[in-house]
Inverse folding.
């Protein structure tokens, strides 16, 4: 029953993306001889599904090598699912918790990507693993940001460390590390202000937060998660490429998959970023976060 509920959530969350993939699925029920016209049509539909140039070319080439001038009777579906799965990053193990002592998770990303909401969901996920959680409101840039995280922390019943708007984010990070150690919290999740890789002062600030946690807690940060807005499609990948040049990230949270038909963009992440997709965001609620499972993702894309 529980599994059923989870499966239907990702299926529901992918509804918009699935509408585009159904036109690809239709092609694969094709029976007859595979010719260039078929391959051209496949290429067009993959592009329309925002799968991106690399993944589109890969799939078309592989289908061509395997099936051009051959008679098919529907067996291409399984083949293409396998190919798509191989383009995705490996099955996620979720958060890499520290073997002992607190686990520190830094969360970064551009404005409005979904960082604060994803942090609330992550906190719930960690609580679900039996962990106690503290969150640090290091986005001191906007007054509403601290308030937003405070509301989530009340709902979650987790600790929050904050200071007034405009205060030094690194000092909030420092206090949060102190509190985490003093109160033996298992996990510290640090919210940061939205930034572009081009905003040098904000990137420096992020680095300062990182250096503070390194100094305070052994092995920290255990995770640096980059939140990407799936509705940005291929642009989200471009943003991530730029982020990656400035800060070492351990994985991606792909947020807002439910709000977009551009879920195909996920097929470009492995090749372009070489960073695992750890979680996907499928809505605005606390339970709308799933550990990324590539097999399930591909299965659900093609389900009626
Ligand atoms: N549908 C949907 N909406 C989401 C998801 N994640 C976040 N949102 C919404 O996206 C908007 C921005 O989310 P935030 O979490 O505030 O984003 P942020 O990156 O913290 O934004 P800044 O702090 O301003 O940089 C909010 O309205 C969220 O409810 C998701 O997975 N699905
Ligand atoms: Mg925020």
């Amino acid at each position: 029953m529980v599994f059923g509920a989870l499966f239907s959530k990702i299926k529901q969350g992918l509804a918009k993306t699935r509408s585009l993939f159904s036109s690809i699925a239709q092609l694969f029920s094709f029976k007859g001889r595979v010719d260039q016209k078929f391959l051209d049509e496949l290429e067009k539909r993959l592009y329309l599904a925002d799968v991106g140039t690399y993944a589109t070319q890969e799939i078309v080439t592989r289908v061509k090598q395997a099936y051009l001038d051959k008679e098919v009777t529907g067996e291409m579906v399984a083949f293409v699912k396998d190919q798509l799965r191989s383009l995705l990053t490996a099955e996620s193990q979720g958060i890499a918790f520290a073997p002992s002592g607190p686990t520190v998770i830094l969360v970064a990303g551009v404005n409005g990507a979904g960082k604060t909401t994803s942090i609330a969901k992550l906190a719930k996920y960690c609580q679900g693993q039996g962990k106690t959680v503290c969150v640090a409101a290091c986005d001191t840039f906007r007054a509403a940001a601290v308030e937003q995280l405070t509301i989530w922390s009340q709902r979650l019943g987790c600790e929050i460390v904050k200071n007034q708007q405009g205060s030094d984010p690194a000092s909030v990070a420092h206090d949060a590390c102190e509190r985490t150690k003093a109160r033996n919290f298992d996990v510290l999740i640090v919210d940061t202000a939205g930034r572009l890789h081009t905003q040098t002062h904000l990137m420096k600030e992020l680095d300062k937060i990182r250096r503070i946690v390194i100094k305070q807690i052994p092995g920290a940060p255990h995770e640096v998660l980059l939140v990407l807005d799936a509705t940005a499609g291929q642009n989200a990948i471009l943003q991530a490429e730029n982020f990656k040049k400035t800060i070492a990230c351990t994985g991606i949270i792909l947020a807002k998959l439910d709000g977009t038909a551009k879920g195909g963009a996920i097929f470009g992440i492995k090749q372009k970023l070489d960073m695992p997709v750890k979680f996907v965001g499928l809505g605005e609620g606390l339970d709308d976060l799933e550990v990324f499972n590539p097999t399930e993702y591909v299965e659900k894309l093609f389900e009626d």
